[in-house]
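Deliverable D5.2: sample structural annotation.
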Amino acid sequence: MSDIICQWLNVELRLSKVTEPYSFTRDFANGYLIGEILHRYELQDDFHLFSKQSTANAKLNNFTRIEPTLQLLGVPFDLAMAKAVMQGRQGAATHLLYQLYIQLQKKKKSGLTATAMEVMQPAATARLHRARRKQHEIMIQIQSAIVQIPKPPHARTSRASEKQLQFRKKQEVEPISTVDKEQWNKEYIESIRQRLEEDSAAREQREMRRRRALMEQLQAHEAQQELLREEQMVSRLMRQTQQEKRITVQLMQIKQQKEVLRQNRIFQERQYQERRLRDFQEALDREAVLAQQERLERSEEIRMERELHKQLVAERAQARYRKHFEICRGILEQIVDLATKAGEYRLLTANLIPVKLMQEWMELFFNGKPLYEVASVDPAPADPTPEQIIELEKLQILNNQDYNEYVAMKGEWVWHEEGESQAPPVNDILDHVLSRLQSLIVPLSVSTPRPLFPRFTIRACMLGKSYSGKTTCLAKISNGRNQAETKTHSNSATDKNSPKDPPPPSPALDLVVLLDISDEQVLERAAHQAGELPLYCYNVDTHDPASSSDEKSLGRKQIQHRISGFHDTWPKLEKWFGDQQNILVKVTADVDEDTLSSNVKIVLMDTMDSVEKGAALGDSRKMSTSSSAEHTRPESACSAKSKSATPKSAGRRYVEEPLPKEIPVYLVPYWENVCNSYVTNVKTVMQNLRSERKLIIHHLYNIRENFRQYLQKTDLKQEFVSVWQGDYNSVPDNIREDEETKGELHQRLDDLRERLWDICDKRKEEAEQERAGVIDDGWLDDHTAVLINHYSALMQIEVGRFQDSLCLLRDYYTAMCKTAFPESTPALCVDTNECVVLGAPTPQQEPSPQPVVEKNPEEVKRKAERKRIKQEFTAALKREEHAVKLRLELIKAHALRTVSSLQQKAEQAYRNMEEWLGTRFLSEMNSIDQLTELVRQHIENGVQIHHELVLQSADFCVDGDTLVVASPSPAPRRSPLEQSRNSTLTVQQLHILCAQLRKTAPAGQNHNELTEVLHELTSPHMGSDVLPEPWMHITPSQFDELVCVLAPDSEMLDWRQFLLSAALPWPFPSQTQLLKTLQRYRAVDTAGTGLITQEQYAQIELWFPSERDLPVPDDPTEPLPYDRLANLKKFFFSLFASTHSSPLMLDYLSMLLYFCCHPEPAQGFTRALSLVIGHTLSICEIFVSSRCSLEIFHLVVEYSDNLCFCRSVDGVKGLFGAAFNVLLCVQELLKVFKELGFKGEEKIPFSTLSQHPFLQDLMEASSQYLLPVSVTNKYVISHNRAQW
């Protein structure tokens, strides 16, 4: 049903707005489109008064105007229906449209106009309609005349009266001055004016209400008068004759019967209508269910499509990654192969790699071929494997490279005579002959006529993915550019005076437009085209539902393949159109249809303007086509002619007499065979030369390495030396000092030396024989002959090609001249340099001129033409002779350089062998002399030779790892000693200072005593090792300042705290580490005495490791590294242990309270309090009472050696030094508790208690747990600065 209504509204009526089933509720809510439908059927004359707005007034106006028309059509429409449509209830608009569609179709079939329908209605219904219409018009006029003025609120008037009354009372009480009176008068007048305006507005409102009531009374009166007039008319008719009365009665009966029939018909139609409505509602419900099911299926299908797209994108990315990875790996492997190949040949050629060899490697590298041999192709396989195919391709690449260099006379074949390079010779006559023969065999292709397709101003194409909007944009643009074809006809005129040679072809396209869109947008548009969402279908051009459905289904199924195909093809297109032709323009297609069309149109118009003005959009880049020489023309391949200008273009005229047909047919295949044979033979020779060069390099390297290995061959010298050393060490020590024994030992040493010399002389003779055998093996002469044979074969190839050229030219010119030229063979001789020298045949001498006799002009012309032919033939022969001589000279020079290089390399290898031999002999003799000198020293000293004497090859050494006599044990290491660093005291100095202070005052000292002790330790008679060097320069006044800093509020000073500060740096413990250390101590202290022994102290780890793995020096005489932390741990025990007990005992809680010191006094006090409590102090968890707080303070004080003056809970006096010299008792704490709002026994959070000013001053002024960090360093540094 909804599709039928949509087709009726959009296709048949073509409303101003395209509607869809899902938008009926929104589109018809204001009633404008309903009025437009009635206006299309000529039933709504006041359609121009309708409003498109969606306000309440606009909706009321529109539905008020369409109500009479709907009633006229018989469409059920009341206030409830209007309210449902305006509020957008589901199905209300659809139901109304369906009723309207049925009634309008009936009207269309009956062909009745609005006036006829109005006349056919019953009188009462018509009168009611007219009355309503007239009433509506009157109401509109009244509403247009009414001015809405708001009525002043009652509250405002009452407030004004109250203010006025208050002002009067105030005026009566207080006298009013003149200025105030004037101000009061103004305000009073203003209030009167405002009240008058409000009264006027209220009066107008009352007048409007009165008018509205009068209008209602007038309408009721008019309706009553209308009914009265009808009754009067009926009564007037009833006063007629009896016959008329009878007729009237009959008519009334008939009318009643008709009314009954009409009512029955109406009732039946109402039943039919209800039935249709039920059927329509059921159909709508079924459509809704099917649409919902289809929507869910489509959503699932879209989800699967997107997942498939993501999978394809991932696979494509993975494939691209693999491709790039393989490319990079291949390039990297080739680079590694190139590096290893270069390193290998540097070893083979003694760091002198030939340039030609490096060029060959680079050519293989650029072609992506492996440098190392992957398979053997000798002999050539009939059915090659893939590896052999690669080797054959490598051979072809190298052969082409060598052939091209040889033909172009480049690289190693460049001409170096007289210091100038010479280009390859050119024989333009031979080129002309070959081109003419070729043209006679294959005639020139006739230029194809121009196509009948008209010429356009621009040629462009549009690219993009599926559903990117290509067809839609082109369709819109083509509708407005139909005149482009006629416009281009004016530019299609050709110039009759243009040259015959056509200009180079222009690029095929002037512009390429890419509609850029994401893959997700493509999938979304494909889903929209399938019918899920009513968006624009960008690629649908047909209006046939069946074909459109098939195309949608096919495009939806192939969308993934289309996207993948675009991604696979686009890089090549982008490289061609963008980088090479520079005609690519990208347009964003992720916009609406109109914007996309306008953007594409702008690009096309700009391109059209630039083309019309003669400016190209992008320069066409010519693609350079490269082809190997063997694939070019046969004549250029064999004669090595450069691509110069043709003979005609050079301005020279050649003889072109007619030839017999069989001459070109014979000569062209003949010349092709000659060229193919020439190319194949030259490449074969080049391949043989490369193989010979490789063989020479490896052979020279092998003979050098074999000779070097031969020189390194072991001999029997070491066995003789070992036996002699054993005999020497077996001599008793008591007779070594005897002169006769020394003489005997010297004589034995001389005998050993003579025997070693004999071995060296014999090895030298054998090495010289080996070198002479390498020189006389005949390898150099054999391979020199092989090289000469290869170059001779290359010369023979050039001579054979020269003979074939002579035969071709002779046959060609003989066929034109109709007389045979003499067949004389060129002179061939070989000089002493084994170079072939050729002499071209000399044409026969023409006879002496005869007396002039008048002859026939035709005969004269024929003789002149024959003379030109002979001259051209002679010139061609001379050029070929020059070319072959140049080639032979080039081959000769190259052969001489190659043979000379081979001989030089061989001689260099032989000289190297001779030098190695002499160097080896001298080294062996030198090593024997060194051994003799060392042994003579031991003989003269009368000692044994403890280490083994090694005489290996040409080297002599003493093996320190091998002992032939037992060696004494090594000396023990020295004890580790700590080095002093700047002003930091060593552990030993700390022990000395601790012993001195404990001896002076075991419990504590005052300022003067500590100053005297420090001053005494810095005196010169105590030595310089007692304190560090910077401490020795501190003055007594600076000592006083230092002591005052350590104890500013007390005369007594804790020297343990002073030493703890002086021992810095040491690892500063955290609160958690201190608690863990306390737990470990308590675990060892099973008796709970609070004391541990030194053994127990050593077993427990502090918060820092006492044993570390320090590096052991390689030198056994050096001491081990000093472990400061381990020795500091021992010092801490001696510092805090009690000396009054035996064995020494340590109060570990007292020691840990010292380590609670902190640079901030409050933090130190909190750390100490946390340690005494036994767990980490958390402000949110600690609750203390007044008595508990006193006990905690006493526990903290109890473990302080010199600061506790009170042990009872009744009061604390002088707590924590001079800053606590106040009365701290229960009353003070109770007072603090009362100030905070707590009773004496109640628990209070420590966070609240610590915020009290009394407690804060108490903690901040405490110096008991204040750690003066680097106090001593401060004064030492200041003293040093003063010295500087």
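Annotation notes: The two ends are 107 Å apart (CA to CA). The first strand starts at residue 460 and ends at 464.
The annotation will be released with the project's public dataset once the embargo ends.
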